[in-house]
Design goal:
Elements (H helix, E strand, L loop, with lengths): L14 H15 L3 E8 L3 E8 L5 E6 L3 H5 L13 E6 L13 E6 L2 E6 L8 H23 L11
Parallel strand pairs: 3-4, 4-5
Antiparallel strand pairs: 1-2, 2-3, 5-6
């Protein structure tokens, strides 16, 4: 295996993964580091979590269709795990379905644009520390997994 690993072609990604890739690229340009499919403590998994230079934590839920959005019963559970919460959708998504008090990002597999800034609801310091540590551990574990795919883990969550 070469390092860094090869990036899978966009054609192999699900619509939600393609949205997350585009948002991650845009966040990188804004100075935000991101982790896709970030596990959270109460058995939730954020499509994308980003960490800013000052420790701010953003969560993005990617929705590829009206049915994908209307079947989601868990999104409000993410609000207690971030400072800002966004939806990422493609240009054809009916954005009027999305709650007006959340952020809105329009994306594709190559990039994204924030159309509506998410309200800022700062995390409590203890929660921020726990989420930041989880973010760092998951990111480090995934990097090590790329560098040494045959390793035996120490029980960390991916």
């Amino acid at each position: 295996m070469t390092f860094p690993p090869t990036i899978p072609p966009l054609s192999t990604l699900s619509p939600g993964q393609a949205l997350a890739r585009g948002v991650a690229r845009a966040f990188d340009q804004l100075g935000l580091a991101s982790v896709a499919e970030m596990p959270l403590r109460p058995r939730l998994r954020a499509d994308l979590m980003a960490l800013g230079r000052k420790g701010e934590i953003w969560i993005v839920e990617c929705k590829s269709s009206r049915a994908d959005f209307t079947s989601d019963r868990k999104w409000q559970g993410y609000l207690e795990w971030c400072d800002r919460y966004f939806w990422a959708v493609d240009g054809a998504f009916p954005t009027e379905l999305l709650p007006a008090d959340t952020g809105l990002i329009v994306a594709d597999g190559y990039g994204a644009e924030i159309l509506r800034e998410a309200p800022y609801a700062p995390l409590a310091p203890a929660r921020r520390k726990a989420v930041t540590l989880d973010f760092a551990r998951v990111a480090a574990q995934r990097l090590q997994g790329l560098r040494d795919p045959g390793r035996t883990g120490a029980g960390l969550r991916a």
